[in-house]
């Protein structure tokens, strides 16, 4: 300990045994890789995860969707990348994938779609409206309820570019009696439209 005090970088009034211990701990902490510190989320107790979420500003970016502890930990690990690319299609797709919605498809610039045989005429698209270059649609492979669609819309307001507007969420639908027609799900494949 005496070596730490004489070789200290601390100002003279702080060069005593109490601060020497603190200084050695700080030197050890500075020596750790930043990736190692982030990876501590794997061993952090579950009741501390909301503090990590608050630190990374995740409460607006899907924390309420991360139901299981493993989903919460994955969201915390990806928080820096999501914030770095916030406002891009990649960020939208990544957040939804982390929350269990699979590989979603985005259809951007929906107002500029043309009748040129590049898009199937299946009533999922609006053609030639013009002026709607900021509108986009989300097609997800996973079944979701109407209330989940509202929650996802609110989530994407924080993740998508501010100028963009989600106009609909669609899912592939099989008419095999898996879903009930009680208002919880829409059976036509388009869960929700906001125009």
Automatic annotation (TrEMBL):
Domain of life (superkingdom): Bacteria
InterPro entries: Tail_protein_I (IPR006521)
Pfam families for this protein: Tail_P2_I
Annotated protein name in UniProt: Putative phage tail protein
